[in-house]
Amino acid sequence: MRVVFAGTPEFARAAFERLHAAGFTVPLALTQPDRPAGRGMKLQASPVKQFAQSRHIPVAQPRSLRLDGKYPEDAAAAKAALEEARPDVMVVAAYGLILPQWVLDLPRLGCLNIHASLLPRWRGAAPIHRAIEAGDAETGITIMQMDAGLDTGDMLLEERLPIAPTDTTATLHDKLATLGGRLAVEALEIAACGGFRPVKQPEAGITYAHKIEKAEAAIDWRLPADAIARRVRAFDPFPGAATPVGGEVVKIWRCEIESNNTSIGADCGRILSVNPDFVAVQCGQGVLRLTELQRAGGKRLPVADFLRGFPLAVGQTLGGTAA
Description:
There is one protein chain. The protein is α/β, with parallel strands linked by helices and 323 residues long. The chain is 27% helix and 25% strand. The protein has helices spanning 10-21, 47-54, 72-85, 101-105, 127-134, 169-192, 225-234, 303-309, and strands at 3-7, 29-30, 35-37, 42-44, 59-60, 89-93, 111-115, 123-124, 138-145, 155-162, 208-209, 241-245, 248-259, 271-274, 279-282, 287-295, 301-302. A seven-stranded mixed sheet has the order 5-2-1-6-7-9-10, sandwiched between helices. Strands 12, 13, 14, 15, 16 and 17 form a six-stranded antiparallel sheet that branches. Strands 3-4 form a two-stranded antiparallel sheet. Helix 1 runs parallel beside helix 6 and helix 5 runs antiparallel to helix 7. The radius of gyration is 23 Å and the shape is elongated. It starts with a strand and ends in a 14-residue tail after the last helix.
């Protein structure tokens, strides 16, 4: 079976590695163009491109796949590369470009997507973040037959995964990436042995995982403690939950709920206690203990180490606008 792989970030690389290790022929990889990254803002290849190059797999990096779009030359070159690759199927994971109908129709078995949620819940760009933020008890991987809609295609395989109380987007991402790679291999083995039994997505329970914006990083201390704690975990590693403190912006990376029962008061964001183990902060409902923090330009630190370089005091209020 000839498998074209399309993906960009680390989540996709994990599946790509698994497919390659399983022995499938991969004549071509599609990934996003190199982007500036790091302090020097040098062009950096995506994780998928890096893996493809390490295995001498040809790579195409079109800016668009729309033949009538803004970059028709890119799309035409990608079309020629795909036709030359003669794929039986395309496997897609966090690619980042919309696949027009000509791409969906080109492989004999169509295009399969590795989606990091239990569809139809959390269609869209940020299913891992939104599942944690919403307090979902479980998530999973859905292997889906792609169509022209946004994650609306028929489901081919699905496996559930519990969300641990301590899971961040980073830790859950790694678990789902491993699961996605295994299910992708399983899906291709099923395809090679005669095909799937597609299942239509339910009409009920549709939700959308909108892209994470940097503006969401700001902590609203008027929210309940459990809601803030979920956002801290959901926004790790990006964009990081943050709050102004004494003219600086401090990121909160770890916290725990001390209480979630106190009534809403007027002292939201007020520091109630400071000790080497945690800083307790009044929320709109309940109290949150902050245990790992980071000041601008610094490292993530346990609260005891953080307080040595950035003292906090009882009665100080977090929030507002940094200078």
